[in-house]
Design goal:
Rossmann fold, about 400 residues, Cobalt-precorrin-4 Transmethylase, domain 1, 5-stranded parallel β-sheet
Length: about 400
C-alpha cells in the first residue's frame, strides 16, 4: 500500500483549475470593501469569516492533485470529499468515482470496497474513515490519499486517550455522520473501549439522569441503540466519562453539554470523583469557531434578513443557520439556484426541518434592506458570489453595476 497524506507537490499545476472552479469576483469585491456592498436600496453585509476553511481547501486541493498525478487510473472517493453538492459534482465530472454507504451482506450500513483493486487510488475525505474501513483499504494494497482534516485528527487523539485510560467517550455529534462514526471508531484501538453519541442537550440530559440514578435501563438502551458501542452497559460505562465532539457542532452547546455531564457526575459521586473520572475539552475546530464568532458579531448589527449558503447535510452550515435564526429571519440555501429573482421566491431549509420549503416575497419589503450573508466551511466563493448577485437581481439591481 502507498499512503499519501501531504499531497503530491502539484499545487501549482492545479491552482489555475481550482481558481477557475471556485473563485468568486463578488466575494473579492465584498472583502475589499470592508465586507459591504450597497446598490440601490440593498446593502449586503458579509460575515468576516466564511466559506472554505483550511481543511476543506486542503481536501479539495489534494483531490485535484490526485487526478493530475493519476490521469489514467481509477480513483475512488469514500463518501463525499466535503458536504457541498457543487464540489462533489465537479469531482464526479473529473471522473472520480464515489463509494456511497450501502447495506452490506451482513446487514450493516457501510462502504462496499469489493470493486477496489491494488491498482486503484482511493481518496479518504476530510471527515476521515472508520478504523475498520481504513484497515480494509490498507489490506487491498491500493494507493491511499488521506485528506482527513487536522482538527478531526485532534479529536481522534482525545478519544483514543479516553479509551486508553478506561473512560467512555461521550461525543456530541450525529451518530450517522461520517466524522462522528470515524471518531467513535477510535475506541476500537483499546480492548473494552466504549462510546456514546448525544445529538443535543436533550439527549445529554437523558445521560445525566441515568448517571444520577433516574434512568430506565431498557428505555435508555432503546433510545441510544444506534449511538453506542457494541455491548454498551450504561450501569458500567457511564461511571467514567470523557467528552469530545464532532468538530462542526455548535460550540456553545458542546461546552454546555460537557459542563452538564460534569455536574451530573459530581452530584452523583462527589467533587473528588468528578476530578478523577471525568474529562472534557473543547474540540470544536478553530475554523468552525471563527465562523460562529463572526456571525455573533454580525448579528449585533441591524439586519432584515440573513442568508446562509451551504449543503443541507453540512453540520457546520446548519449550526450557522441555527445561530442566525435566533435573531433574524434566516434562509439556509444549498446553492444560489435556490433563489429565483423572476418569481421573487427562495427555496430553503428552515432550521430543524426535514426538507425544503419555498417562500415567496422574501425580499419584497420596502427598502432600504440590510441583508447578512455567510456560508459554511465547505462552500466555495463562486457559489457565495452567485447568491449575492441573485439577491441584487431579486430587487431589480444588476450586480454588474455594483463593480
Amino acid at each position: 500500500m502507498t499512503y499519501v497524506r501531504k499531497g503530491f507537490g502539484l499545487r501549482a499545476e492545479v491552482q489555475e483549475l481550482l481558481a477557475a472552479d471556485y473563485t468568486g469576483h463578488l466575494v473579492d469585491l465584498l472583502t475589499s470593501r470592508d465586507y459591504t456592498l450597497t446598490a440601490g436600496d440593498v446593502t449586503i453585509r458579509l460575515a468576516r469569516e466564511f466559506g472554505f476553511c483550511y481543511g476543506v481547501d486542503r481536501a479539495v486541493d489534494y483531490a485535484y492533485q490526485t487526478r493530475a498525478k493519476f490521469p489514467d487510473r481509477r480513483i475512488f472517493l469514500v463518501g463525499e470529499i466535503i458536504h457541498n453538492p457543487h464540489v462533489n459534482t465537479r469531482l464526479d465530472e473529473m471522473g472520480i468515482r464515489f463509494l456511497l454507504p450501502t447495506t452490506l451482506p451482513d446487514g450493516r450500513t457501510g462502504f462496499d470496497f469489493s470493486d477496489v483493486t491494488a491498482e486503484d487510488v482511493v481518496l479518504i475525505p476530510a471527515f476521515g474513515v472508520t478504523i475498520g474501513d481504513f484497515e480494509t483499504l490498507r489490506a487491498l494494497g491500493c494507493v491511499l490519499v488521506d485528506t482527513t482534516c487536522g482538527s478531526v485528527l485532534n479529536v481522534w487523539k482525545r478519544v483514543d486517550s479516553y479509551a486508553r485510560d478506561g473512560l467512555t467517550a461521550l461525543i456530541h455529534g450525529k451518530f450517522y455522520h461520517e466524522e462522528t462514526r470515524a471518531t467513535a471508531s477510535q475506541v476500537q484501538k483499546h480492548a473494552g473501549g466504549t462510546y456514546i453519541v448525544v445529538r443535543d442537550m436533550t439527549e445529554a440530559r437523558i445521560v445525566c439522569d441515568y448517571i444520577e440514578g433516574r434512568g430506565d435501563r431498557a428505555a435508555f438502551l432503546e433510545r441510544f441503540a444506534k449511538a453506542i458501542s457494541p455491548g454498551f452497559d450504561p450501569d458500567r460505562d457511564l461511571r467514567r466519562i470523557g467528552v469530545a465532539n464532532q468538530t462542526t457542532m455548535l460550540a456553545r452547546e458542546s461546552l454546555a453539554i460537557g459542563e452538564e455531564v460534569g455536574r451530573a457526575m459530581e452530584r452523583a459521586h462527589g467533587a473528588e470523583y468528578r476530578r478523577e473520572h471525568f474529562r472534557t475539552f473543547d474540540t470544536i475546530c478553530s475554523a468552525t469557531q471563527d465562523r460562529q464568532d463572526a456571525i455573533v458579531e454580525l448579528l449585533r448589527e441591524p439586519l432584515d434578513v440573513m442568508l446562509v449558503i451551504g449543503g443541507y447535510n453540512s453540520s457546520n452550515t446548519m449550526s450557522l443557520a441555527a445561530l442566525c435564526a435566533e435573531k433574524v429571519a434566516t434562509y439556509h440555501v444549498e446553492d444560489a439556484r435556490c433563489i429565483d429573482p423572476e418569481r421573487g421566491t427562495i427555496r430553503h431549509k428552515p432550521v430543524g426541518a426535514a426538507g425544503e420549503a419555498e417562500c415567496a416575497g422574501w425580499l419584497s419589503a420596502p427598502g432600504p434592506l440590510r441583508i447578512g450573508v455567510t456560508a459554511g466551511a465547505s462552500t466555495p466563493n463562486n457559489k457565495i458570489g452567485e447568491a449575492v448577485a441573485l439577491i441584487f437581481a431579486t430587487r431589480g439591481i444588476d450586480a454588474a453595476a455594483v463593480a
